[in-house]
Amino acid sequence: MAQPSIGAQASRLARDFTLNGVSRTRMPKLVYGTAWKKDETANLVYTALKVGFRGIDTAAQPKHYDEQGVGAGLKKAVLEGVVKREDVFIQTKFTPPSGQNENAPYDFSASVQDKVHQSVQSSLKNFTIVGQNAYLDSLVLHSPLDTLDDTIVAWKTLEGYHPHKIRNLGISNATLGIIEALYSRVTVKPAIVQNRFYPDTDYEAGLRVFCKEHNVKFQSFWTIGANPHLIKSQPVMNVVQGAGVGVVSAYYALVMGLEGITILDGTTKEAHMKEDLEGLEHVGAWADGDGEATWKKALGEFKQLIKEP
């Protein structure tokens, strides 16, 4: 029997987002990241879905992702009744030539439009389940193209698949200036921005303000790897002690407490998958109840630590 998403539960912190597009897609606060999983991709995706993840991030970029393996893991979970396809948020990416190797899912000599079409068709094939119409909950430009004009061309090509084959569009590895320019020139507005969460960009504070003002959700990556000082910080330890959860769960909860943020979680250990999902819900219930004062204090101190405006 298909299991409910952790994000469907009650706590405000763990509750799924509803994206701003016409499809009103639900996106979990924790999305399983599949970069660099190689031959283990299918098994890890299946395991992630089995333990409760309901969001999966991949890319049409064989250099770093096995999108076909992600599709295989999803199909296995659907066919075994672990999940229903409509209950899983599937996100992939169009990766420009600068991020590809010789195994790219398109012809390097093709036009921008044709590269996008070839990549999208390849992705839809990877996520085709027998007897169901293939679709993607989100497709993200993995990075801006060489010029803003080419970026707009790629985006407008993707708009042709919206809202049925691609339900939401987003962009990754982009500056606030590029995102503002894109936003002003396209018909289907971005629902998602996926960027690093780290000190070099001031944790994208300015960009996250833009996202909040325009109801765009921010997806955070490098959340752990780039921030060892934050993970060991006092606000995190206060949540660990108060809520009785692990360090990673406490840290993820504080990042989500900044609002409008989903975190990409790429753990390869089943036990950690469970801990991350259950820990987030546990912190959320604690913060909604007896731990409210301690949570608010820790969150305030965490915001000061990252110089949140």
From TrEMBL:
Q: Which residues form a coiled coil?
A: none
Q: Does the keyword Oxidoreductase apply?
A: yes
SUPFAM superfamilies (alphabetical):
NAD(P)-linked oxidoreductase
Q: Molecular function terms in GO for this entry?
A: oxidoreductase activity
What Pfam families does its record include?
Aldo_ket_red (PF00248)
Keyword Zinc listed? The answer is no
Q: InterPro entries this protein is in?
A: AKR, NAD(P)_OxRdtase_dom_sf, NADP_OxRdtase_dom
- Cite the NADP-dependent oxidoreductase domain residue spans from the record: 35-221
Q: Which UniProt keywords apply?
A: Oxidoreductase
Name by which UniProt lists this protein: NADP-dependent oxidoreductase domain protein
| Record organism | Beauveria brongniartii RCEF 3172
Q: What are the top taxonomic ranks of the organism?
A: Eukaryota, Fungi, Dikarya, Ascomycota, Pezizomycotina
